Amino acid sequence: MTNVAIAAVPRDDFGKGVARKLRAAGLVPAVIYGHESEVRHVSLPAHELNMALTKTKVVLEVVVDGATLVVAPRQIQRDPVRRIIEHVDLVLLSDKEQRERAAEARLIDLAEEAAIEAGLDPMAVAEAAQAAVARGIRPADAIEVALDDVRAAQLAQAESA
Q: How far apart are CA 126 and CA 160, in angstroms?
């Protein structure tokens, strides 16, 4: 799991025109909510946010008015043509949610490493490992199950072709 620190600027103005001006200035409008706290409207630097959101299971440490909020992206709205981020919803993470997210990210990293060593598709193995954990398989065994599942799927696909 990757924690990325980003400085945010609180905002009081809303609407399409304000959002366009923010994006023209290199900022992305965002909202932070969750855990019965007040909703905070902020602006984030577009480039830093883009770079952070390329990482798997990213956790953002957003600094607003001197306070650090640990958040995760909940919804990302992109322009359908230009693919730039137009708006982001961020949800506050509790300590428990941070630990769970770190464990899930570690599982994905290990699954991708095992897939590369086995010559398999890393994304397919990572998704299969997450599905195995969701089925109740221990995380320690989930990677082996995922590797077997992906190998079997590739064999079935090769036989049908």
A: 24
